[in-house]
C-alpha cells in the first residue's frame, strides 16, 4: 500500500503521446452539438477549447467532459515554446475504416487522437499543417457545490481504476477533514471552508493508493465551477 502523507510533493501527471487534427473553421460552428450531447458549447460554457476524441479515449461516452492539456511537439508547425492548451472532450471522432490509420484514418483504433476545434488547434500550431504530433495529460476534476457550511465535491476524470474509496479536504486554514460519501462520486464535508484555498486527498478503492491534489481551488472558489488538479492515478 502506497499511502501519501500530507505535505508530500507530487509530480504532475506524466505526458503521453498522440496526434491532433482540427475540424470546422474559425467560428467553431461545426463543433456545436456532438456525441456528448452538450448542445451549444457557448451557452453551456465550453466555448471553443474543445476536442473530439478517438474511440479509445471516448470510451463509449465515459470520456465526455474530460479535460486534457495538449501541447504540440516535434514538428516545425508547432509554435515556439510549445504552448499548452486545455480542451474539454465534447464529441467523438469516429473511425474511418476506408482510410489507413496513418493516412486519413487518424481516429481508427487503437490510435489516441484529438480532433480539435480549429480555434483550439490554432493556439498550439500552424493550422496549415493539418495534423501534428502532440503530448497530452489529464488531471482529476472537482465540481464544487454547497454553501458556507457544507461542501459537496463531485469527482471526475479519475485515472487508474477510476474509483474512489475515501476522500478528504483541507482548507488553507484547516487540517485534513474526512469527507463522507453523499452519492456516487460525490463527497461532502460539513465545515466552513469559504475564503480558503482547497486541497483534496483521494484514496483509490482498487489499489488503496492515495494522492494529494494541492491547492486545486483558489481562495475565491465558487460553487457550480469545476477545478482541475495536475495529478491523477495511473
TrEMBL record:
<dbReference type="InterPro" id="IPR007112">
    <property type="entry name" value="Expansin/allergen_DPBB_dom"/>
</dbReference>
<dbReference type="InterPro" id="IPR007118">
    <property type="entry name" value="Expan_Lol_pI"/>
</dbReference>
<dbReference type="InterPro" id="IPR007117">
    <property type="entry name" value="Expansin_CBD"/>
</dbReference>
<dbReference type="GO" id="GO:0009664">
    <property type="term" value="P:plant-type cell wall organization"/>
</dbReference>
<comment type="function">
    <text>Causes loosening and extension of plant cell walls by disrupting non-covalent bonding between cellulose microfibrils and matrix glucans. No enzymatic activity has been found.</text>
</comment>
<keyword id="KW-0472">Membrane</keyword>
<dbReference type="GO" id="GO:0016020">
    <property type="term" value="C:membrane"/>
</dbReference>
<dbReference type="GO" id="GO:0005576">
    <property type="term" value="C:extracellular region"/>
</dbReference>
<keyword id="KW-0134">Cell wall</keyword>
<protein>
    <recommendedName>
        <fullName>Expansin</fullName>
    </recommendedName>
</protein>
<keyword id="KW-0732">Signal</keyword>
<dbReference type="InterPro" id="IPR036908">
    <property type="entry name" value="RlpA-like_sf"/>
</dbReference>
<feature type="domain" description="Expansin-like CBD">
    <location>
        <begin position="149"/>
        <end position="229"/>
    </location>
</feature>
<dbReference type="InterPro" id="IPR036749">
    <property type="entry name" value="Expansin_CBD_sf"/>
</dbReference>
<dbReference type="InterPro" id="IPR002963">
    <property type="entry name" value="Expansin"/>
</dbReference>
<feature type="domain" description="Expansin-like EG45">
    <location>
        <begin position="33"/>
        <end position="137"/>
    </location>
</feature>
<dbReference type="Pfam" id="PF03330">
    <property type="entry name" value="DPBB_1"/>
</dbReference>
<keyword id="KW-0964">Secreted</keyword>
<keyword id="KW-0961">Cell wall biogenesis/degradation</keyword>
<dbReference type="InterPro" id="IPR009009">
    <property type="entry name" value="RlpA-like_DPBB"/>
</dbReference>
<dbReference type="Pfam" id="PF01357">
    <property type="entry name" value="Expansin_C"/>
</dbReference>
<comment type="similarity">
    <text>Belongs to the expansin family. Expansin A subfamily.</text>
</comment>
Amino acid at each position: 500500500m502506497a499511502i501519501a502523507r500530507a505535505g508530500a510533493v507530487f509530480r504532475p501527471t506524466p505526458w503521453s503521446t498522440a496526434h491532433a487534427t482540427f475540424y470546422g473553421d474559425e467560428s467553431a460552428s461545426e463543433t456545436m452539438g456532438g456525441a456528448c450531447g452538450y448542445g451549444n458549447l457557448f451557452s453551456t460554457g465550453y466555448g471553443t477549447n474543445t476536442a473530439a476524441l478517438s474511440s479509445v479515449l471516448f470510451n463509449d461516452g465515459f470520456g465526455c467532459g474530460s479535460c486534457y492539456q495538449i501541447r504540440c511537439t516535434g514538428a516545425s508547425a508547432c509554435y515556439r515554446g510549445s504552448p499548452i492548451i486545455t480542451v474539454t472532450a465534447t464529441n467523438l471522432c469516429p473511425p474511418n475504416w476506408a482510410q489507413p490509420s496513418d493516412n486519413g484514418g487518424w481516429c481508427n483504433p487503437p490510435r489516441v487522437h484529438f480532433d480539435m476545434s480549429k480555434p483550439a488547434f490554432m493556439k498550439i500550431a500552424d493550422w496549415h499543417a493539418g495534423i501534428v504530433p502532440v503530448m497530452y495529460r489529464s488531471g482529476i476534476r472537482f465540481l464544487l457545490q454547497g454553501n458556507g457550511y457544507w461542501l459537496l465535491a463531485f469527482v471526475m476524470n479519475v485515472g487508474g481504476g477510476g474509483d474512489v474509496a475515501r476522500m478528504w479536504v483541507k482548507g488553507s486554514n484547516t487540517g485534513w477533514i474526512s469527507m463522507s460519501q453523499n452519492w456516487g462520486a460525490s463527497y461532502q464535508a460539513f465545515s466552513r471552508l469559504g475564503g480558503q484555498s482547497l486541497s483534496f486527498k483521494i484514496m483509490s478503492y482498487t489499489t488503496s493508493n492515495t494522492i494529494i491534489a494541492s491547492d486545486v481551488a483558489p481562495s475565491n472558489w465558487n460553487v457550480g465551477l469545476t477545478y482541475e488538479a495536475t495529478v491523477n492515478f495511473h
